[in-house]
Amino acid sequence: MTNQPGWILIYAGLLVVGVGIVWLLAPAIPWLGKLPGDILIERENFRFYFPLTTCILVSLLLSGIIWLVRLLSR
Question: Is the pTM of the predicted complex or chain greater than 0.70?
Answer without folding.
Answer: no
